[in-house]
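Hey,
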Amino acid sequence: MIVCCGEALIDMLPRISKDGAAVYQPFNGGSIFNTAIALGRLGIITGFFSGISTDFFGDSLIAGLKASNVDLKYAKIWDKPSTLAFVKLDNGQARYSFYDDNSAGRMLTKKDLPKLSADVNALHFGSISLIPEPGATTLEDLVEREEKTRVICLDPNIRPNVIKDRSQYLERIGRLISMCDKIG
């Protein structure tokens, strides 16, 4: 089993309503969520670890993971809000505005780390979940705990506009790289 560890969020994409008004439409997303979905659809035994909200956005994320055969036994499903990522397109380039304060994924702490079963061969980490605290440190703790017994994959998918403390982030990425088997 590969367990994908990181963000599950709602991408709010710009659309035009039938009456011509600018609106946002929600879509399940997040780099790590999307990786879990792809692996599950390919028939690879896949699990997901992050916090997922009990709000209706969380319901949508859970439904998407289940529909793609992703195991949720490692997910923490709790009463924290879902992360929202509003997207603006400028000349075909996406700009993001994240609403992540006190969110289900961000607020994970070391006590929330799952005990992994023997069938977990690899862990995949990445993207914005490696930035905000306390969740970023929690994921790093999981890598440190599991690096000797599992394949560790990292896809940083760096979002510079979300990083508030560049030197702290670069130090974390450096530590994670030193513990990884595969960087994508």
